[in-house]
Amino acid sequence: MAMRLDGKAVSAHFKGQIAEEVAELTASGKRPPHLAAILVGDDGGSRTYIEAKDRACKEVGFSSTILYFNADISQDELLREVQKINENSEIDGLIVQLPLPSHIDENLITQTIFPKKDVDGFHDINMGKLTKGDYSGYVSATPLGITMLLKYYDIETSGKHAVVIGRSNIVGRPMSILLSDSSETGNATVTLCHSRTKNLIEICRTADIVVAAIGKPYFVTPEMIKPGAIVIDVGTTRIDDDTREHGWRLAGDVDFKLVEPLASMITPVPGGVGPMTITALLNNTLKAYKQYA
Prior knowledge:
Layout (H helix, E strand, L loop, with lengths): L2 E2 L2 H21 L6 E7 L3 H17 L2 E7 L5 H12 L6 E4 L9 H7 L11 H8 L9 H12 L8 E5 L6 H9 L8 E5 L6 H5 L4 E4 L17 E4 L3 E4 L7 E4 L4 H4 L5 E2 L6 H20 L1
Parallel strand pairs: 1-11, 2-3, 2-4, 5-6, 5-7, 7-8, 8-11
Antiparallel strand pairs: 9-10
Helix pairs in contact: 1-10, 2-10, 6-7, 6-10
């Protein structure tokens, strides 16, 4: 049976370190780091995620601001709100929760955020720095959180074959770069798979590490996993479940019950990658504060 990589416990460990550093800063008379978030519309999943980030900020002593806007906000108005935060020297990091309504150009919004406040790591400048191995910018929070998890559990990646399923700019692409980079949690040989990949099952079966970030519940099945592989499940899809209080539950991209007996290590959903994403976001915000405040 696989060892479960406990994102909640690891997140608590790193949040404790962040909280200690913030306490030292405020004790010396400095203001705490400040993270702002913009939420457009009333999507339940997005609201839950933003509010979890808000709670995490309070846990570590950050200031936190959430700006809520109706789904019919115009693109120009949203751009003005982003610019206000860009120009506010008391705010260190800004995230705009995705997805946005269809009438708003997501790329335009994310590229309008000042790179030094782009703690989600979506701006072209931060993405470009990552491709060059320059970590002076910000790494996208989910891939960064995964590397923090790998480091905490002292998981060897050097020389291993890692398969990343999914090529999004938020998870798949940056994750493949981090795993292949010359770093403590890199130096792996990486295969990036996607919807056009042929022989996906055969490729996955050669992997020492599988990162599933495709957004399809239970997509990764036992036939895709080599015995003893490490499985990182990024998926968080809401599916109907009448037995739950809210009528839904989170499902990962991995068929956990069937894959767990094969793997050597595996992240659960929930409680695996999710908490680490939020912790990585806090880490980026503290970094922004120290670099620019």
